[in-house]
Amino acid sequence: MKPKSTQKSEEELAKTLAHTLDKSLAEIDDLSLQRLKNARADALSHSVNSANFSSRFIRFGIAASLITLVVVPILWHQYNAQQFSDADVELVLQEIPPAAQELDDMDMLIAMGDIDA
After folding, report:
1. What is the torsional sign of CA 32, 35, 37, 39?
2. What pTM does this model have?
3. Contact between 69 and 61 (Cβ < 8 Å)
């Protein structure tokens, strides 16, 4: 808790500030007072509009993120499917001739088969 002297001085300061502001407000001419009221109204309406805009922007961001999560995998799958063309299928299905080492091994197996028979 604050000491009484500090609390009392803060109360006096608040009273002095309130009196000064009230006195200054009374001395303002009607045109300036109207301008201040208009500026306040504009500021309040702007803050409401900007809050409304930010909520719309957040909703747009969420919607865009969800669409991206759905569309990107579909497009990626289509891209990968196009990569595997008919020429690739022919290459995969093509019979590869045996290498020289494999031919020697087959000749050896055939020769061994003839001996066993």
Report:
1. negative
2. 0.30
3. no
